[in-house]
Amino acid sequence: MEWTIRDRKWYFEVDKTRGGRMFYLQDDCKHEELVEMVVNDYMLQVNGELLELSYPLPAAMMEKLPTDSPPMYVTNDRQVGSLVELCKEHVVRLCVSTRVGMGRNYNEPIHECVQEEKSEEVDKEDVEEEFGDEGWDDNESDDVNWNDKAWDVNSEDESDDTHDNDSADDVDNPDDIDADYSKYGKVKDEEEGEESLSFRERLRRGVWNGGNGGFTGTWCDTILLRAAVKNEPDCFWVTKFDEDHVWLNLTYTTSYRALKFAQVFVRGTPEDGYANLPSYLRRLKQANPGTITHLLCDEEDRFKYCFVALAASTAGFQYLKRVIVVDGTHLTGKYGGTLLVACGQDANFQVFPLAYGVVDAETNESWGWFFDKLQTCFSPHPMVIVSDRALSIENACVNVLPWVTRGICYYHLQQNIIKTYGGKELMYLVKGAAYAHTLAEYNRCMDSLRAAHPDLAAYMELADPKLWSRVHFPGDRYNIKTSNIAESINSAIKKAKGFPIPSLLQFIREMLGRWFYKRREDALSLQTPYSKGVEYILAIREHYAQSMDVQRIDATSFHVAGRSHL
């Protein structure tokens, strides 16, 4: 595996027998740590290999440089820092090159190939005899327990007069009380010391003991799983992934523990989430000036409620129809909870999230607290709130926002009717009464409904037509007759409902960021003052209007004959 130049371009010749690895680098990663990762994951014999780490510059940077610009070599901590910063903006392919050397320690500078304590050279034939001409055989790794196997990093024992490349069995000699096992790796006699390792060290060694059993795998395997956590794979996916990329045959139980370990490593535990929530909310306000956040704890300083309204949402809502749809959805994390959302609809008939919060359950107290914080996001002008028929929402509107006009979701009303009275064949009359634009049309539908099903008509009148019918509604709810807007938000965050609280809030923030950016680009591309949704409606109505006959009556009145689609 080495770099070659052809046609004034550098190419890296890959040894396909060794495969690839994936590394997760912290911002404070050192060169020694990176080299140790490579050595452990590629199972290199450190004493007999000369290790070189390099990478090609990204294509975006190569466009501004000569085509024959050489690859970058990572030789010290400063170069590792540059590599980490570059990875934040570009996808970087790290290339590992090895060649047989003179037993040089990989921590020494490249130009120094002399051993400090060894005076005799390692015979090249001895190295090739142990590794073979083609290097390490990947197929042998399936039967090896890497946590119990000790590997030799010195060419010989100082107390041994023979020069036969001491094997792992010689290192594991229990009589050698002066041996420094930290250089050789994990040995069987040190199992009891594993509990004292730090979390990062346990992760680096690929050892995790917890729950009803332990997950033990290579460090590379853990990092590869980490890269796939955001895709929410199941245990069968993890098993197949290990078979294809890491050459491990894992059972379903082991795959489940590996997946749970990777999820905890990426997102933290639920307890960590509650502990880090104040810090997350503070950083969210610092990064998004104007964002409104509230955190409420009980008398024992335990989490109770939280509220978030991004600055972009509160600023944009001032230009929307003054109709807010609210709803709640259950969370599936360790401690449960409920996510409350408040949304509007923009000029393009798209969902516009205004605020969201996490509470214990949908109660009078939680909805009252949420509405109390929600009213700080808009001016107290005439407002309409649409929701399901939950009594807690009704009580919160009466106690906290008495000046708003409340309406109920027609879809929830329809589902209750079907569940209680059946009669799907009469739903066209129910919908006609709910969507009627004139009182005469409403009365016609209700009279037909009373004649066909008196109990159903009585139920609808008992539900108060001012809450569900368009013609009797005292406010302006426009075309928003259901709570589908909020239900759409609940569906969009379905896979994040089990995340720790900060990860859930961050998932929503990133989702809204993508939505707002896409809508801004769409708005900049408009050729008229109207949105794409409005232009579509106007185009359809124009198509039908062209088939109608119009006769002027006077200056302000016309007689229109034709279809009734408009």
Describe the model.
It contains 22 helices and 16 strands. The chain is an alpha+beta fold. The protein folds into five domains: 3-144, no CATH class; 197-267, no CATH class; 271-409 and 482-518, Ribonuclease H-like superfamily/Ribonuclease H (Nucleotidyltransferase, domain 5, 2-Layer Sandwich), CATH 3.30.420; 410-473; 526-561. The strands form five sheets. A seven-stranded mixed sheet has the order 8-9-12-11-10-13-14, sandwiched between helices. A three-stranded antiparallel sheet has the order 4-3-5. Helix 9 (235-246) packs across helix 10. Residues 101-224 have low confidence and may be disordered.
CATH secondary-structure class of the largest domain: Alpha Beta
Count of the domains: 5
* Fourth CATH level, the homologous superfamily of the largest domain: Ribonuclease H-like superfamily/Ribonuclease H
Nearest-angstrom radius of gyration?
A: 34 Å
- The CATH architecture of the largest domain: 2-Layer Sandwich
Main sheet characteristics = 7 strands, mixed
- Helix share of residues? 40-55%
Number of helices: 22
Q: What integer is the average pLDDT?
A: 75
Straight-line distance between termini: 71 Å
- Strands of the biggest beta sheet: in what spatial order? 8-9-12-11-10-13-14
Q: Which structural class do you get from the secondary structure elements? A: alpha+beta
> Unreliable runs, pLDDT <50, ≥5 residues?
101-224
Beta strand %: 15-25%
Query: What is the name of the CATH topology of the largest domain?
Result: Nucleotidyltransferase, domain 5
Region (Disordered): 112-195
Biased composition (Basic and acidic residues): 180-189
InterPro entries: MULE_transposase_dom (IPR018289)
Pfam family, one: MULE
